[in-house]
Structures are given as C-alpha cells and as structure tokens.
User: Fold this.
Amino acid sequence: MKVGDRVKVLPYEVKLRARWNNETRSEDYIGQCGTVTEIVEELCGQPLTPPQVYVEFGDGFVGSYSSDKLEKYNPLSIDEDIACLKKILLEALRIPKEYLMESEE
Assistant:
C-alpha cells in the first residue's frame, strides 16, 4: 500500500461512542473506498505497528486507520464487487455462514 492507492475500509468492531455536533467519524466510512494520502510508520522516533494510514474520501473527509483495517481496492474486479454484495446481503438477512457451506461431494 502506498500514497495514491485506492483502498476499501474493511468491517471491524466499533465501540459505541457519543457523537458531538453530528461530526463524521472514521468508523462511518466502513465499506467505502478512498485514496491513501499519507502513511505514518514512525511516531516520535518509535515504529508504529501496524502503520497509521490516512485515507481521503469523496466528500473531503480524511480518516486515519491502521493498515490492517484497509485492503487495496480493484474497481475492475467484478468478482470483488459480487463477493462484497453477497456478503452484505447475507449479513443483512442474518443467514448463518455454516448454513450456506456447500458439502464437498
């Protein structure tokens, strides 16, 4: 991952926090795509593990994420879009993953 790459924010568990003055938070962009603007691998001389990645979205918001919460986005991959859509649909319908596993016969 490098500056200028398009990335997608992966789903991750969020602790509920109060929202002040309707401000946007980086958690609000889970599942959306943005552009990497900066990668900080060191802070005050100490290495950051994982690195902190700043991502700018289409509305101008810049959120900071750890690199393990991002994946490179390939807009030309139709399989990725279908897989993402299927995952979102099944989660919304609350269908257990075990139920959908196909037997290997």
Observations:
- The chain has a mean pLDDT of 82.
- Residues 78-93 form the longest helix (16 residues).
- Strands lie at 6-9, 33-43, 46-56, 62-66, 70-72.
